[in-house]
Amino acid sequence: AHKIASDPLAGWGIESKGYRRHPFMVYLLFVEQLIFGIKPVGYFLVNFLLHFFNSLLVMRLARSLKAAPSACFLAALLFLCSSSFYSILIKLTGTMEILGLSCFLLAILAWTECLRGHFRSYWKVVVFQTLSLLTCEVAMVFPLIMLYLACFTYPRGKVRSQMLWRFVTPI
After folding, report:
1. What is the pTM for the complete model shown?
2. Torsion from C-alpha of 56, 24, 167, 119, nearest 10 degrees
3. Cβ pair 112, 149 in contact under 8 A
4. Per the CB 3.0–4.6 Å rule, which of 85, 112, 143, 146 could disulfide with 64?
5. Per-residue pLDDT reduced to its tens digit, 76-127
6. If you average pLDDT over residues 4-24, what whole number do you get?
7. Cβ(128)–Cβ(171) under 8 Å?
8. Among 167, 20, 37, 157, which residue's Cα sits nearest to residue 97?
9. Confidence bin at 36 (pLDDT 50/70/90)
10. What is the Cα–Cα distance from 170 to 23, expressed in whole angstroms?
């Protein structure tokens, strides 16, 4: 772990002994190591702030899917208090999952903007999805979520087919 935190290019290196290549996360660990050194409080603070940011993204995503304001707040609160993320918050290696989820949620939010007709947001989809892939493997399901949201948003017909071929197929 010390080699990863001290070498910003280690994330692009060869996989060995269980070490997986996640360059974006390695850069975050590198910056954290420069700022906090070996004091774990800073790392935990970064993880908590990222988790709090993710809960705000969940609320914004629920709002973009036209949920009632109270349901949006409840979704964010449940996400924030979720016991599954507490295990990630208390270990330093959880940064990968939390950061990957941040990028993943930002990509989904950008995709909902595309579905509302803001096609210039597509570059945000590509950037955040790429960052998510460079952080954590869970981002591999993103095209399935894009497909589901496109089918959920558009009724059957030519418009849905055009959206799927134009935006979902390339990803």
Report:
1. 0.76
2. 60
3. yes
4. 112
5. 999 888 766 666 666 666 777 888 888 889 999 998 888 888 878 888 988 9
6. 56
7. no
8. 20
9. confident
10. 23
Residue 1, pLDDT score: 46
Per residue in 154-170, pLDDT tens? 666 676 677 666 666 65
Count Cα atoms within 13 angstroms, Cβ side, for 42.
Answer: 12
**Phi, psi at 24, each rounded to 5°:** -65, -40
User: Around Cβ 67, how many Cβ atoms within 10 Å?
Assistant: 15
Residue 97 and residue 88 in contact, taking contact as beta carbons nearer than 8 Å: yes
Helices (H), 9-164: 23-36, 40-64, 69-80, 83-89, 95-115, 122-133, 142-153, 158-163
DSSP class of residue 16 equals: B
**Contact between 78 and 62 (Cβ < 8 Å):** no
Type of residue found at 72 = C
pLDDT tens-place string over residues 132-159:
888 777 777 777 777 777 777 766 667 6
Q: What is the mean pLDDT of residues 44-59?
A: 89
Name the 3-class secondary structure at 19: strand
